[in-house]
Amino acid sequence: MSSAQILFGVTLIIVLGVAAQWLAWRLHVPSILLLLLFGFLGGPIAGQLQPDALFGELLLPFVSVSVGLILYEEGLSLRLTELPKVGGVVRNLVTTGAFVTWAISTLASAWLFDLPGELAVLLGAILVVTGPTVIQPLLQHIRPSGATGSILKWEGIVIDPVGALLAVLVFEAVSAGELREATAHVLGGVLKTIIVGGGLGVVAAGMLSFALRRYWVPDFLQNAVSLMLVLATFAASNAAQHESGLFAATVMGITLANQRSVDVRHIVEFKENLRVLLISGLFIVLAARLEVSSLLAVSFRGMVLVLLLVAVARPLCVWVSTVRSKLSAKERLFLSAMAPRGIVAAAVASVFAIRLEQIGYE
4 lies in a domain? Predict the structure, then answer.
């Protein structure tokens, strides 16, 4: 593509994203609906936006880094003081609940699509992931009372790095032909991610708070230094342990938000503005990559899979995770109705589709 075409494409992404956000605000509808619509109209319908040609090999790294920054910002919104009320439910949702979702998704996809066992397990792992990029705009629109908002916020942010890591580890086991040894492989990978990603996230947050407390960074550079550190932490964590960068960015945000030595409200405000631009751009880009033929090819079996995820997997996941909690029936019903898949699931699925073709799967 020429430089003029690249400039037009990047400008179109920003214009469509911000316009969709503004129109959603004016119409009082969730922004994700208009972001997906605008991206689809600009991409496969009008043909003016072609993300693969525009970004080339930079597309997936761009998506990955953007998701890392979004999770960092979301981590800055998490307060450990909320955990005494919602911590048990959140823990269950991202462990036991995730396993229930994985199992049902795996069995349903194998039954409906006659997938080989290894591909069914991989698809089930991808479908474990929900996402704050979808849940947060919905929560801002609905504004639920009680503990449900905090539970969904914590689950959406924590499950993203956990689910993405799970999918990556399962894929590595599948591609190596070691599905029987996948359990040990996954457990080992999760442990390494907690140690590497969590450790780097805590250290980076400590470095930033120490530098701010000692006034080593002037006010006008604090947001830039924060952005630099989270990107460096993300890249270093990924280099040390594959796909642990999302967890590192999340832990860095949570640690920074809950330290009391320095005020980080100005950093939070900057990241909130950056998050709006990143979410807008990401949804426009991913929606523009869709093809009309692929949407028309969604069969009855595909819709049955979605129905099973919505009406069986999610309610069972919530029921198992809240069996001893103090949540009311209405709160459990609301939690059961909220498990949209977001940017991470779409990005991971896109990466694996390419890699599976490269190793011989249709």
Answer: no
- Mapping DSSP to helix (H, G, I), strand (E, B) and coil, where does residue 295 land? helix
Look up the pTM and report it. Answer: 0.82
Q: Is the pLDDT confidence value at 132 over 80?
A: no
Surface-to-core class of residue 226, CB atoms within 10 Å of its CB (0-12 exposed, 13-18 middle, 19+ buried): buried
Q: Which of 33, 84, 36, 112 is nearest to 346 (CA)?
A: 36
Contact yes or no for 172/224 (Cβ under 8 A): no
> What's the rounded Cα separation, in Å, for the pair 143 and 137?
10
pLDDT mean over 7-30 = 92
- Structural domain contains residue 105: yes
- 66 within some domain: no
Mean pLDDT of 134-146: 80
DSSP string across 70-101: HHHHHHTT--GGGHHHHHHHHHHHHTHHHHHH
Instruction: Give the domain extent around 248.
Output: 71-278+297-358
**Which residues are CB-neighbours of 202 under 8 A, at least 6 positions away?**
251, 252, 255
Residue 255's domain is classified under what CATH number? 1.20.1530.20
Q: Which amino acid is at 328?
A: S
Query: What's the half-sphere exposure (Cβ side, CA atoms, 13 Å) at 277?
Result: 10
At 294-347, the pLDDT tens digits run: 777 677 888 899 999 999 999 999 999 998 888 899 999 999 998 888 767 777
330, two tokens: 């209405």
Going by pLDDT thresholds of 50, 70 and 90, the confidence category of residue 175 is low
Asked whether residue 22 is assigned to any structural domain, the reply reads no
Cα separation, 313 vs 252, in Å, equals: 31
Question: How many structural domains is the chain composed of?
Answer: 1
Mean pLDDT value across residues 21-25: 92
Instruction: Fill in the DSSP letter of residue 42.
Output: I
Both structure tokens of 339: 């498990």
Residue type, 196: V
